[in-house]
Amino acid sequence: MTLSLAHILSARRTLRGVADATPFVPSPFMTKAAGQDFLLKLENMQPIGAFKLRGAMNAVMALPEGTAGVTCCSTGNHGRGVAYAAGLRGIRAVICMSELVPQAKVDGIRALGAEVRIKGRSQDEALAESLRLVKEDGLVEISPFDDPHVIAGQGTIGLEMLEARPDLHTILVPLSGGGLAAGVALAAKSINPDIRVIGVSMDRGAAMHLSIAAGHPVEVEEVASLADSLGGGIGMQNRLSFPLCRDLLDDTVLVTEDEIYHAMQVLFYEDRIVAEGACVVGLAAKLAGKVPAAEGPVGTIITGRNLDMTMFHDIMAGRDVQLGDVTVKGKPYGA
Ligand SMILES: *Cc1c(COP(=O)(O)O)cnc(C)c1O
Domain 5-47+148-326 carries which CATH code? Predict the structure, then answer.
């Protein structure tokens, strides 16, 4: 299947009334820092608190009549999207996650009525459990990123960004399995082939970045990160999101945990937005001088808000944060 703008336009019709257009607003602080209009696409305002509802909903609605149920592996937000969409269709959902997924995300999924399975310490182990359920219970697996309906659903974000600001010069996309980056880049470059799309990941376990560099999918060690939603591999059998990201992204850049920590403070103290570490990597990359200057407006996607509030309080207070065996040194904002 060759994905095109037509699939993204079709996804938008499917999503109408469930995952509608979100605001795309300038950040005055970031605009000053970037020397260009810097805009935030507020996907933290989706009903499940993350953009993943778009792809999940588009995939669940495409399933044939009589489908027994769905299953997926997830770092949390895709599972929440699938659970929500399955609830709207009235079918069973079993969400498989690793022990690295924060409790707040697990609780959110249970509250939507989905069944939850916690397996192992990696996305791969969660995926193995999901594939077992496909065999034994006849459920349909929905990949968090390597699925044409998921990619087309996420692509509707790119469509909205370019409709609101046809003059966008650069889009900074948080990058993990690459469903979001593939969809956004496909939409944006179909409308304006000259637009620059840059993927941003954390520097530990950046699966897509390393896979593009190697020319094929590679395995990464999964570690705890402030950007927990960006964890996990891209799948050694990746069919769609890897070639799309390889062909459509102009660059991929990496940010450190310290840079993510600081950018979370910036987004909260300057723009009063509560968001996950994964969402601020675009701001972090810009503030750290890791993306080249743009000759026009820059947009990034505030992908979700489903974070652990205790950790959020610690970061806003400038306290140290412990991530597995790594300590992110705290610093009060503005100090
Ligand atoms: C899933 C997710 C991403 C990354 O999306 P991919 O399609 O896996 O690259 C970014 N931010 C948040 C909050 C997410 O849940």
Answer: 3.40.50.1100
